[in-house]
Amino acid sequence: MGIKCRHCGMESDHERVCSWCNKPLAETPPPTATPACLPSPKQAPAGSAVPETTSVELKLRPVWHSFALAGIVVVVVFVVLQLVCLRQAVAPPAEVSSWESVTSKTGHFKLQVPAGWKFSTAGSAGTHEEVWVRRGPVYLISLDGTGFKGAMSDISGAGARVSAGLDGGPPPLERKPEGRFHATLGGIAKHKDPHYQEEDDMQPCQFAGQPAAYSVYTTQKKAGMFTVQIKGWRISCPGTDYGYDIRAEAPAEQWDKFEPIATKLIASVQFGSK
Q1: Which residues contact 258 (CB under 8 A, 6 or more apart)?
Q2: Whole-angstrom Cα distance, residue 148 to residue 169?
Q3: How many other C-beta atoms are found inside a 10 Å radius of the C-beta of residue 115?
Q4: Which end of the chain has fewer surrounding CB within 10 Å, N or C?
Q5: How far apart are CA 82 and CA 77, in angstroms?
Q6: pTM of the entire structure?
Q7: Contact status, residue 242 vs residue 129, Cβ threshold 8 Å
């Protein structure tokens, strides 16, 4: 029995195409359209494994990495700047080509200081007078005179006079007013500064024509974040209404270049300018 053609109504002797109108007897399903927004699937090469579908993982760089890098840069720059400052601070002092005359604020004395070095003074008549000469943070010459130190020197003088004739000869420096005064100020310096250390015994000297005593010492100072070894000497003079504590200090490695400058400055001090 033939198949009835749905197009012409005749019975066809063939199963797939009408023998009368040559049209297909079976209905052809419409082709499935692929949406334009989706990519067409690609054929995997023969013999290759088809990978399983995985989710896309978004990797974000942690924010703290950026902060850490910035912090490292800041620290490096800071350390470099500190090293530069340290190198400038401990550089040897240049040869002094000219000096200038200055007077303490109270007018009790005058002295010569290197031109270009920082000079400052303070004081109040009858109580104290101070002078500082600086070259950077670790080169310093200071004169500190106070009425209180003057009273201390008077006490030292009284003790010296009591012990002066105990052995019948001239008293040693330790029993003279300047020696006793010097020892007292040395004890105060050691109490204030744990790094303070005197190298040798005190020696006699003169300060502006007055008897005095001096000692060489070592200590430490900060220059930024670094510690600098310091060498210096101090002079104690009880010869006026004020008692004077005079210091000169510099980096230990530059002391030989600095000491002649400090010595010339101290030698220039004159009392009674007012």
Answers
A1: 92, 93, 139, 248, 250
A2: 31
A3: 11
A4: N
A5: 9
A6: 0.66
A7: yes
Distance CA 204, CA 170 (A): 14
Helical pair 177-192 and 147-163, crossing angle rounded to 10 deg: 130
Digit-coded pLDDT (tens) for 91-131:
778 889 899 999 999 888 899 999 989 999 998 877 888 99
**Going by C-beta distance under 8 Å and a sequence separation of 6 or more, which residues neighbour residue 50?**
44
- Place domain 104-271 in its CATH homologous superfamily: Mog1/PsbP, alpha/beta/alpha sandwich (3.40.1000.10)
Contacts of 124 (CB under 8 A, 6+ apart): 106
Residue 254 φ/ψ, nearest 5 degrees: -110, 5
d(CA 105, CA 131): 8
For 235-265, write each residue's pLDDT tens digit. Answer: 999 877 788 999 999 999 999 999 999 999 9
Dist CA 252 CA 239 (whole Å): 30
Maximal CA-CA distance, the chain? 165
The tally of CA atoms less than 13 A away on the side-chain side of residue 181 is: 32
Range 230-249 burial, b when 16+ CB lie within 10 A, else e: bbbbbbbbbbbebbbbbbbb
For the chain, helix, strand, coil in percent to 5 are 30, 30, 40
Which letter does DSSP use for residue 239 in this model? S
Of 211, 158, 218, 148, give the one whose Cα is nearest residue 185.
Answer: 148
Is 109 in a helix, a strand, or coil?
strand
Cα–Cα distance for residue pair 268/103, rounded to 1 Å: 11
